[in-house]
Amino acid sequence: MLTGLNDYDFIDFGCSKGGSIAYAAKAFGVPRGIGIDISPEKVEATRQAGFEAMLADARTLSAYPKAVSFVTMLDFLEHLPGISDARTCILSASEVAKDFIFIRQPWFDSDGYLMSLGLKLYWSDWRGHPNAMTSLEFHNVLSRIPNIEDFRIYGRDPILDSDHPAVHPIGSPIDQHEWKAGTHDPKPAVPFDRPVFKQIMCIAILKGSSTTLEEVEGKVPWDTVVFASGA
Questions:
Q1: How many whole angstroms separate alpha carbon 74 and alpha carbon 199?
Q2: Nearest CA-CA partner of 95 in 3, 11, 33, 25
Q3: Three-state SS for 83?
Q4: pLDDT digit string (tens) for 131-181?
Q5: What are the phi and psi torsion angles at 52 (to 5°)?
């Protein structure tokens, strides 16, 4: 059983080594966050890095209603087995937080378009990313969670053409990082005629919160609103 959650400003789901805790504390101007992870090794790595962390399952926090102001999920949901687990985690976040949920992870919306050009984004071909959620899937999850009052989905860091190092030829091996000449196969030079981004970002405001979407989005960088629930 978790104890002392009410002592924290936020919970970071899937804390890994603690970098996301540091990011959220700085971005949102709060002093104290705690990470949770199901991996004892990652919890220990987070603690060794100087952050607070607990061994816990992000899907099972409904027993601690409104314990913290917000929940962050940074580069977390794509590592889950599938969308069902992601939905359960977001529902859990909507119960343990009282103000908002902040999600940011790789962009997967453009996979089909890029494949038609003989290209791919390197993170779309990782064995560690079995849950490649698109903006439509985020919409379908967020719009059906009772505790969510309002939400927006954003694109962050536009990729304008195939020269970007995040773009690989479709035949590149799996589990790669940025494309490098001489290391990876050549790729065609193609300007993109539709939006492609590095990251997707979601902000969901919870019912009863006095925090606004505009207040939260003013503290983090983004480029395009893909969908706004109040529009």
A1: 10
A2: 11
A3: helix
A4: 999 999 999 999 999 999 999 999 999 999 999 999 999 999 999 999 999
A5: -90, 140
